[in-house]
Amino acid sequence: MSAPSARAPRPGPLLGADGYGLSEAPADGSALPWSTVEAWLVESRSYWVCTTRSDGRPHAMPVWGLWVDGELWFSTDPASVKARNIARTPEIVVHLESGDDVCVLEGSVRTVETSELPVGFVDSYEAKYGFRMDPTNPNSGLFALAPDIALTWTEVEFPTTATRWTFT
Hints:
The chain is an alpha+beta fold. The chain has helices at residues 34-43, 81-88, 121-129, 158-161; strands at 10-13, 47-52, 58-63, 65-68, 71-76, 91-96, 101-112, 141-154, 163-166.
């Protein structure tokens, strides 16, 4: 399940205010290769899912999940605030726990059926978390984020590693 992604993104410059010194970062992704970022995505324990409430206020909650073939797969109770927000507005932001090795994903999440789960998903989930999820449980809504962009950098070398990855 942790093989390199079939959805390899294209690197480009991360745009920001002039004071950030971002002109130092090479636009070809060589300073922070996608393979390094993808390893962070595979190895991360928790992923912060940021959604929007009906009144426009933000909502952020951590979830467990797996990075599979260029998508973040996770579950949450369909009655949860984040699932209700996703049903109304599927555009979300997800980021990893680390503020030192940074990956921020932006895109639209979709609800998936149990039959769509990648082969070995439940086994890989159990190996990672020590918990065997039951995807047939009605309280286990399944979701997949195929990101449009990823913003990445290492904090210690921010200006030279900052990269905007675009998925096609």
